[in-house]
Amino acid sequence: MKPAPVLAQPLTTSQPPKPRRTGSLALFLRKVYHLAHLRLENLCQSLQLPEEIVRRIWTTLEWTLRTHHTIMKDRHLDQVIMCALYIVCKVSGKECETNFTDIMKHYRNQPQAASHVYRSVLIKPGAGAGGREVTAPPNTCPPTPGRMAASSTVGHDGEERGDLINFYNTVILSDEARIKEFALRFSVKKSGVESNLPPLSPLPQLRANPSSPCRKVSDSHSVFIRPLKPSNMAPITQSPIKPSLSYSFSRSPAKDLQAINEMMR
Known about the structure:
By secondary structure, the protein is mainly α. The chain contains nine helices and five strands; from the N terminus they run H-H-H-H-H-E-E-E-H-H-H-E-E-H. Helix 1 (24-47) packs across helix 3.
């Protein structure tokens, strides 16, 4: 009598999720990732772009930073953000088309904006003896061209700088970068119908509203802090709908702070 055959157990393909990378480099990359999304989101809101176009711009920007990270060498993150915004809006149709003048106008409203970001962009790195690239000394502000369009300056080491439009036409639209080729995939004329558009990258989830001055300080309790401005010197009134505790330094009595400490325990 033959023994019953043993059935093979099916192999499970499910794998535990990959652990989150830690370390200084991973932390730096996450900060760049979220900073790029934050600045792009603020710029798109100022330009009143629809959410679909914002996701296309973010997908193009993410692809550029991931596959062509060398484009960031000796350049500013905002330069790549504005170029990605422009090229996607240009290929998405006339209803979303904008120009660099409007983009830079709204960019100047951001707190980190500086004129040299869009007036002095690296076009071609300089080369020293043996063809090696020469980097500028630390804490040196790049030169600023006098004109915006079609202007460029060439240093003694061969380094060429120009404005943002020159950078877009020379570097972003180059065959080597292939950014134009990727952005054209979002063109409805080339795709035929919108269902043939490439998949869009998900937008990062921000932990808090960047436009709000309030910051949550506890994961277990709804406790927020915010800076006290001179315009907020009026007496603090509690909401009649939902009672809340508040304390203002140099203004509120000590018992208010004690009540908050009791709630946190």
